[in-house]
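Q: Please design a sequence for this.
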């Protein structure tokens, strides 16, 4: 199944397609859809960054305890 960065990319694609469809059907303005997409991408980026920091600190702790 999808995990890690693959899940993030899948989420970004789904949100992007949904934003395009919503603005095409005039459910939301295109400017607002773009802004919400950017906020979502920044949120996913922050989560990925936090995950990398967490994994890096785990590796340092495992290496120092040996």
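A: Design:
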């Amino acid at each position: 199944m999808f995990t890690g960065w693959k899940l993030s990319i899948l989420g970004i694609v789904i949100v992007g397609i949904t934003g395009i469809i919503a603005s095409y059907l005039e459910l939301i303005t295109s400017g607002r859809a773009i802004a919400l997409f950017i906020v979502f991408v920044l949120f996913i980026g922050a989560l990925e960054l936090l995950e990398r920091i967490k994994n890096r600190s785990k590796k340092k702790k495992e290496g120092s305890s040996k």
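Q: Thanks. Anything notable?
A: Residues 4-57 form one domain. Residues 30-65 form the longest helix (36 residues).
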